[in-house]
Specification:
13 helices; N-(1-d-carboxylethyl)-l-norvaline Dehydrogenase, domain 2; eight-stranded mixed beta sheet; 51% helix; 336 residues
Length: 336
């Protein structure tokens, strides 16, 4: 039997899954918003061709066809995509929402899709898609979870588990887990950046390894920085959804708010991660020299600003909560 898949968004996850889908004989089509952007259109079209994926000119073209629809967009676009897709989705199409968003956002998206005749499945992707690919752990929930799990298995996913409960239960597990996973990434970055600046990186790593034997904090710090530099903007959007989840639960979200800030700051630097922790730290030192609050600025509050009134990239990369000028301690110079 021919399997039909439409993917909305063709970034890291969809491009990682696509070869496996083709391997089980699926016909794959895709729509990505970059196809509407002149700067990125050609590169995205080339990526789709390279993966033997049929290009859809519009979102409506993608969702009005047969088969399963998989939403893999950034967290801040998940609800908007569901709203737009609801205008054209084929009746009884399975809509797999694999986006990292709050239970509230998933329930809102589910209401839109099911109101238009689609069958909504809450899917939580529980680990990085590389190197697992179609073996990545998936949790599914909602009243169409059984049908969804069967379809995902047919599409080649080998690690699918149904979580009993309504839409939002699978995503609640994902969101609350991200408090720890993305939070550790942010803490790791803060720790090694400070240790490198103080000239005690090796000693700090050795001390952590002694406290947690087998953890290999040097490797972990390198990996975590790699993920933040490459995907910090996307991960920050996810952490904003985590904050919504925690605020709804009433348990407090202070740590997760700071995690979102740190993830966003590193992702915004636009650094292509080099191999190895020392190379990453060197690149960060060049991109965002250490910032210090100056005595005449501490009373004003807010991030450092350029003449146009926007925060400087340096202040954003190393958020301190005060008005600062860039102080490059290596040169002993204060720069506005």
């Amino acid at each position: 039997m021919t399997l039909d898949i439409a993917t909305i968004g063709f970034g890291e996850a969809a491009s990682t899954f696509a070869p496996g889908w083709r391997g089980v004989g699926a016909a794959v089509r895709a729509y990505d918003i970059k196809l509407d952007q002149p700067l990125y259109r050609s590169a995205m079209a080339q990526t789709l061709r390279a993966h033997d994926v049929n290009q859809c000119a519009t979102l409506a073209d993608a969702v009005s066809g047969p088969g399963c629809i998989i939403s893999l967009v950034t967290a801040d676009q998940a609800l908007a995509v569901a709203q737009a897709a609801a205008e054209s989705i084929s009746a009884a199409s399975l809509w797999f929402d694999m986006n990292s968003v709050s239970p509230h956002t998933k329930r809102a998206a589910g209401a839109l899709i099911e109101g238009a005749g689609g069958l909504y499945v809450d899917v939580a992707v529980m680990s990085p898609v590389e190197p697992a690919r179609l073996a990545v752990p998936l949790l599914v929930s909602g009243r169409h979870a059984s049908a969804g799990a069967a379809a995902l298995t047919q599409l080649g996913f080998s690690n699918v588990r149904i979580v009993p409960g309504d839409i939002g239960r699978a995503s609640a597990i994902k969101m609350i887990r991200s408090v720890m996973v993305k939070g550790i990434e942010a803490l790791t970055a803060e720790c090694v950046l400070a240790a490198e600046q103080a000239g005690v990186l090796d000693e700090v790593i050795a001390s952590l390894d002694a406290s947690w034997p087998g953890a290999d904090w040097g490797f972990r710090a390198d990996y975590n920085l790699d993920r933040m530099l490459a995907h910090g903007t996307r991960r920050a959007a996810e952490m904003e959804e985590v904050v919504k989840t925690l605020d709804t639960l009433g348990t407090g979200s202070q740590m997760s708010r700071s995690t979102a800030e740190r993830q966003r700051a590193l992702g915004a630097l636009g650094i292509v991660p080099a191999a190895g922790l020392p190379a990453k730290l060197a690149a960060l030192a060049l991109a965002a020299p250490v910032t210090r609050p100056l005595p005449d600025a501490t009373a004003q509050g807010g991030a450092a600003r350029v003449p146009g009134g926007h925060p400087t990239p340096e202040a954003a990369a190393f958020p301190g909560g005060k008005d600062v000028r860039r102080v490059d301690v290596r040169m002993g110079e204060s720069q506005p």
